[in-house]
Protein backbone atom coordinates (compact mmCIF):
# COMPACT_ATOMS: atom_id res chain seq x y z
CA UNK A 1 0.00 0.00 0.00
CA UNK A 2 2.90 2.34 0.77
CA UNK A 3 4.40 1.73 -2.67
CA UNK A 4 1.06 2.58 -4.29
CA UNK A 5 0.84 5.78 -2.24
CA UNK A 6 4.31 6.84 -3.35
CA UNK A 7 3.38 6.26 -7.00
CA UNK A 8 0.22 8.33 -6.53
CA UNK A 9 2.23 11.14 -4.92
CA UNK A 10 4.67 11.27 -7.83
CA UNK A 11 1.86 11.17 -10.41
CA UNK A 12 0.04 13.97 -8.57
CA UNK A 13 3.19 16.12 -8.55
CA UNK A 14 3.71 15.61 -12.29
CA UNK A 15 0.08 16.52 -13.02
CA UNK A 16 0.19 19.53 -10.66
CA UNK A 17 3.34 20.95 -12.30
CA UNK A 18 1.87 20.37 -15.77
CA UNK A 19 -1.28 22.27 -14.87
CA UNK A 20 0.69 25.13 -13.33
CA UNK A 21 2.84 25.51 -16.45
CA UNK A 22 -0.11 25.36 -18.87
CA UNK A 23 -2.94 27.69 -19.81
CA UNK A 24 -5.67 27.12 -17.23
CA UNK A 25 -8.28 28.84 -19.39
CA UNK A 26 -7.94 26.22 -22.15
CA UNK A 27 -10.53 23.57 -21.23
CA UNK A 28 -9.39 21.08 -23.89
CA UNK A 29 -5.79 21.34 -22.76
CA UNK A 30 -6.75 20.79 -19.13
CA UNK A 31 -8.81 17.74 -20.06
CA UNK A 32 -5.86 16.40 -22.03
CA UNK A 33 -3.58 16.96 -19.05
CA UNK A 34 -6.06 15.04 -16.88
CA UNK A 35 -5.84 12.07 -19.27
CA UNK A 36 -2.07 12.45 -19.30
CA UNK A 37 -2.00 12.42 -15.49
CA UNK A 38 -4.08 9.25 -15.37
CA UNK A 39 -1.75 7.50 -17.84
CA UNK A 40 1.32 8.57 -15.88
CA UNK A 41 -0.31 7.34 -12.68
CA UNK A 42 -0.93 3.89 -14.21
CA UNK A 43 2.65 3.62 -15.50
CA UNK A 44 4.06 4.67 -12.12
CA UNK A 45 1.85 2.15 -10.31
CA UNK A 46 3.15 -0.66 -12.49
CA UNK A 47 6.73 0.58 -12.11
CA UNK A 48 6.38 0.51 -8.32
CA UNK A 49 4.75 -2.92 -8.53
CA UNK A 50 7.88 -4.10 -10.29
CA UNK A 51 10.08 -2.42 -7.68
CA UNK A 52 8.07 -4.14 -4.94
CA UNK A 53 8.58 -7.48 -6.69
CA UNK A 54 12.33 -6.91 -6.67
CA UNK A 55 12.22 -6.02 -2.98
CA UNK A 56 10.23 -9.13 -2.12
CA UNK A 57 12.64 -11.30 -4.09
CA UNK A 58 15.52 -9.97 -1.99
CA UNK A 59 13.52 -10.57 1.19
CA UNK A 60 12.60 -14.07 -0.01
CA UNK A 61 16.25 -14.92 -0.52
CA UNK A 62 17.05 -13.68 2.98
CA UNK A 63 14.25 -15.74 4.53
CA UNK A 64 15.44 -18.83 2.67
CA UNK A 65 18.97 -18.28 3.96
CA UNK A 66 18.00 -18.18 7.63
CA UNK A 67 15.39 -20.96 7.46
CA UNK A 68 16.23 -24.47 8.63
CA UNK A 69 15.32 -26.27 5.40
CA UNK A 70 16.72 -23.59 3.09
CA UNK A 71 13.32 -22.64 1.72
CA UNK A 72 11.31 -19.49 2.25
CA UNK A 73 8.19 -19.92 4.44
CA UNK A 74 6.24 -17.66 2.06
CA UNK A 75 5.65 -18.61 -1.56
CA UNK A 76 5.80 -16.22 -4.49
CA UNK A 77 2.09 -16.74 -5.19
CA UNK A 78 1.21 -15.74 -1.65
CA UNK A 79 3.31 -12.60 -1.93
CA UNK A 80 1.76 -11.79 -5.29
CA UNK A 81 -1.76 -12.16 -3.90
CA UNK A 82 -1.06 -10.05 -0.83
CA UNK A 83 0.71 -7.38 -2.88
CA UNK A 84 -2.12 -7.14 -5.40
CA UNK A 85 -4.76 -7.06 -2.69
CA UNK A 86 -2.91 -4.27 -0.88
CA UNK A 87 -2.67 -2.25 -4.08
CA UNK A 88 -6.37 -2.84 -4.69
CA UNK A 89 -7.54 -1.91 -1.20
CA UNK A 90 -5.60 1.35 -1.00
CA UNK A 91 -6.66 2.20 -4.56
CA UNK A 92 -10.29 1.53 -3.68
CA UNK A 93 -10.05 3.66 -0.54
CA UNK A 94 -8.72 6.63 -2.49
CA UNK A 95 -11.28 6.11 -5.25
CA UNK A 96 -14.31 6.14 -2.98
CA UNK A 97 -13.33 8.32 0.00
CA UNK A 98 -14.14 11.64 -1.69
CA UNK A 99 -17.37 10.19 -3.07
CA UNK A 100 -18.44 9.10 0.40
CA UNK A 101 -17.59 12.56 1.73
CA UNK A 102 -19.74 14.20 -0.96
CA UNK A 103 -22.62 11.81 -0.27
CA UNK A 104 -23.15 13.47 3.11
CA UNK A 105 -24.51 16.52 1.34
CA UNK A 106 -25.75 19.10 0.80
CA UNK A 107 -27.66 18.39 -2.40
CA UNK A 108 -29.33 15.49 -4.16
CA UNK A 109 -27.69 13.44 -6.90
CA UNK A 110 -29.44 13.90 -10.23
CA UNK A 111 -31.43 16.98 -9.26
CA UNK A 112 -29.96 18.95 -12.19
CA UNK A 113 -30.48 16.21 -14.75
CA UNK A 114 -27.36 14.19 -13.96
CA UNK A 115 -27.44 10.44 -13.48
CA UNK A 116 -28.99 9.36 -10.14
CA UNK A 117 -26.83 6.21 -10.22
CA UNK A 118 -23.57 8.01 -9.52
CA UNK A 119 -22.92 6.44 -6.11
CA UNK A 120 -23.92 2.88 -6.99
CA UNK A 121 -21.84 2.88 -10.18
CA UNK A 122 -18.89 4.32 -8.26
CA UNK A 123 -19.20 1.47 -5.77
CA UNK A 124 -19.21 -1.15 -8.53
CA UNK A 125 -16.27 0.53 -10.24
CA UNK A 126 -14.29 0.54 -6.99
CA UNK A 127 -15.06 -3.14 -6.45
CA UNK A 128 -13.81 -3.94 -9.96
CA UNK A 129 -10.58 -2.00 -9.38
CA UNK A 130 -9.86 -3.83 -6.13
CA UNK A 131 -10.33 -7.19 -7.87
CA UNK A 132 -8.32 -6.10 -10.88
CA UNK A 133 -5.34 -5.02 -8.82
CA UNK A 134 -5.41 -8.38 -7.04
CA UNK A 135 -5.50 -10.25 -10.36
CA UNK A 136 -2.85 -7.99 -11.89
CA UNK A 137 -0.57 -8.66 -8.93
CA UNK A 138 -0.76 -12.43 -9.42
CA UNK A 139 -0.15 -12.21 -13.17
CA UNK A 140 2.55 -9.55 -12.87
CA UNK A 141 4.63 -11.44 -10.30
CA UNK A 142 4.37 -14.69 -12.26
CA UNK A 143 5.42 -12.90 -15.46
CA UNK A 144 8.43 -11.34 -13.72
CA UNK A 145 9.44 -14.67 -12.20
CA UNK A 146 9.16 -16.55 -15.51
CA UNK A 147 10.47 -13.57 -17.54
CA UNK A 148 7.47 -13.55 -19.83
CA UNK A 149 7.53 -9.85 -20.60
CA UNK A 150 4.64 -9.95 -23.04
CA UNK A 151 2.41 -10.71 -20.06
CA UNK A 152 3.74 -7.60 -18.33
CA UNK A 153 2.76 -5.63 -21.41
CA UNK A 154 -0.75 -7.05 -21.32
CA UNK A 155 -1.11 -6.15 -17.63
CA UNK A 156 0.00 -2.57 -18.28
CA UNK A 157 -2.20 -2.31 -21.38
CA UNK A 158 -5.30 -3.61 -19.56
CA UNK A 159 -4.59 -1.20 -16.69
CA UNK A 160 -4.34 1.72 -19.12
CA UNK A 161 -7.52 0.59 -20.90
CA UNK A 162 -9.44 0.33 -17.62
CA UNK A 163 -8.29 3.76 -16.55
CA UNK A 164 -9.18 5.22 -19.94
CA UNK A 165 -12.68 3.74 -19.87
CA UNK A 166 -13.49 5.74 -16.73
CA UNK A 167 -13.32 8.93 -18.84
CA UNK A 168 -16.51 7.77 -20.58
CA UNK A 169 -18.46 8.49 -17.38
CA UNK A 170 -21.24 9.52 -16.86
CA UNK A 171 -22.01 7.21 -19.79
CA UNK A 172 -21.84 4.33 -17.32
CA UNK A 173 -23.00 1.60 -19.69
CA UNK A 174 -19.98 2.25 -21.90
CA UNK A 175 -17.52 2.12 -19.01
CA UNK A 176 -18.82 -0.37 -16.44
CA UNK A 177 -19.69 -3.19 -18.85
CA UNK A 178 -16.24 -3.33 -20.53
CA UNK A 179 -14.48 -2.95 -17.18
CA UNK A 180 -16.37 -5.91 -15.71
CA UNK A 181 -15.62 -7.95 -18.83
CA UNK A 182 -11.93 -7.12 -18.35
CA UNK A 183 -12.25 -8.05 -14.67
CA UNK A 184 -13.80 -11.44 -15.49
CA UNK A 185 -11.20 -12.26 -18.14
CA UNK A 186 -8.32 -11.10 -15.94
CA UNK A 187 -9.69 -13.13 -13.02
CA UNK A 188 -9.75 -16.30 -15.12
CA UNK A 189 -6.24 -15.56 -16.33
CA UNK A 190 -5.00 -15.06 -12.76
CA UNK A 191 -6.77 -18.27 -11.67
CA UNK A 192 -4.98 -20.38 -14.26
CA UNK A 193 -1.72 -18.54 -13.63
CA UNK A 194 -1.92 -19.47 -9.95
CA UNK A 195 -2.23 -23.14 -10.90
CA UNK A 196 -5.99 -23.50 -11.03
CA UNK A 197 -7.85 -25.69 -13.48
CA UNK A 198 -11.39 -26.83 -14.28
CA UNK A 199 -10.46 -30.29 -13.04
CA UNK A 200 -9.63 -28.85 -9.62
CA UNK A 201 -12.95 -27.00 -9.55
CA UNK A 202 -14.90 -30.17 -10.34
CA UNK A 203 -12.86 -32.09 -7.77
CA UNK A 204 -13.57 -29.44 -5.15
CA UNK A 205 -17.30 -29.52 -5.92
CA UNK A 206 -17.39 -33.31 -5.76
CA UNK A 207 -15.64 -33.29 -2.38
CA UNK A 208 -18.13 -30.71 -1.18
CA UNK A 209 -21.05 -32.87 -2.27
CA UNK A 210 -19.56 -35.91 -0.53
CA UNK A 211 -19.09 -33.93 2.68
CA UNK A 212 -22.70 -32.69 2.53
CA UNK A 213 -24.00 -36.23 2.02
CA UNK A 214 -21.95 -37.48 4.98
CA UNK A 215 -23.35 -34.71 7.17
CA UNK A 216 -26.89 -35.60 6.13
CA UNK A 217 -26.32 -39.31 6.85
CA UNK A 218 -24.81 -38.52 10.23
CA UNK A 219 -27.75 -36.26 11.09
CA UNK A 220 -30.22 -38.95 10.07
CA UNK A 221 -28.50 -41.53 12.27
CA UNK A 222 -28.76 -39.20 15.24
CA UNK A 223 -32.55 -38.94 14.91
CA UNK A 224 -34.21 -41.50 17.28
CA UNK A 225 -36.62 -43.94 15.67
CA UNK A 226 -40.22 -43.91 16.82
CA UNK A 227 -42.09 -47.10 17.64
Automatic annotation (TrEMBL):
One GO CC term, this protein: gamma-secretase complex
BP GO annotations: Notch signaling pathway; protein processing
Entry keyword set: Membrane, Notch signaling pathway, Signal, Transmembrane, Transmembrane helix
Highest taxon of source: Eukaryota
Transmembrane is among the record's keywords: yes
Transmembrane segments: 31-48, 79-97, 117-140, 152-172, 178-198
Main location: membrane
Topology of the protein relative to the lipid bilayer: Multi-pass membrane protein
InterPro entries per UniProt: Aph-1
Compartments it resides in: Membrane
Protein's UniProt keywords contain Nucleus: no
Signal peptide: 1-19
Similarity comment: Belongs to the APH-1 family.
Quaternary structure, from the entry: Component of the gamma-secretase complex.
Role played: Potential subunit of the gamma-secretase complex, an endoprotease complex that catalyzes the intramembrane cleavage of integral proteins such as Notch receptors.
Protein name, UniProt field: Gamma-secretase subunit APH-1
Organism ancestry: Eukaryota, Metazoa, Chordata, Craniata, Vertebrata
Gene behind the chain: Aph1a
Amino acid sequence: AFFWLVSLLLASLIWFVSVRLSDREDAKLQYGLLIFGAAVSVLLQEAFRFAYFKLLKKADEGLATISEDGRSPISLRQMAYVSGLSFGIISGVFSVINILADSIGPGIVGIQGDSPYYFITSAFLTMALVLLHTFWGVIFFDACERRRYWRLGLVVASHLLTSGLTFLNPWYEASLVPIFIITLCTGLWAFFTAGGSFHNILKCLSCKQEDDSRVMMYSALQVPFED
